[in-house]
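Supplementary Note 3. Input sequence used for the single-chain structure prediction.
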Amino acid sequence: MKELLEKYKAIIAKYEIVAWDTEPSYYRLKANLYFIDGSQLIIKDYLFPTGRKYSFHWQDEDGNLIIRWDNATHWKGVNTFPHHKHEKNGVFDSKEVMLEDVIEYIYIYKGDIYMLKQKDQILAEALKLPPTERAELVEQLLSSFEFTSRKIIDALWSEEAESRIDAFERGEITTISAKKVFEKIEKRKD
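The predicted structure, written as discrete structure tokens, is reproduced below.
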């Protein structure tokens, strides 16, 4: 379970283990996963000496069914019997029989939404940083792009910096401390 939580941490907001029992010939897992979009996966997975029973019930934040995967034996007409999934418009074949299969399905199904929410969360956190740290982050992000002209830009900035240092040493320009610059920026924000 820890490996799954780590692998899908980008989409899982939190989780709770309701019950976990294990013996050599059986196990019982009841848990809840809460995704970053507000949806929830209610997990019931049991292995008995007579076989395995599972139900993975995925619902939206209002408790409405999105999909439930299970292996109850009452749907004999599905090609993957006893494995099937319930959706709003019926019962269908299901290849997803293990918890990881179900989480992967959810990840792919909701991937774009999760990525947008994750991007929004990252941006919100970045905007809380002080100005100097935001500037450093911007520089790191920009340097992560592989531009062929990046070397040219870096060379030009290096040349400009050398030119300014030379002008300072000749007394042609003065400096302002970084502290004063950032104080001025902060005052403009107010």
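The longest strand covers residues 12-23. Strands lie at 12-23, 26-35, 40-48, 51-59, 65-70, 84-87, 90-93.
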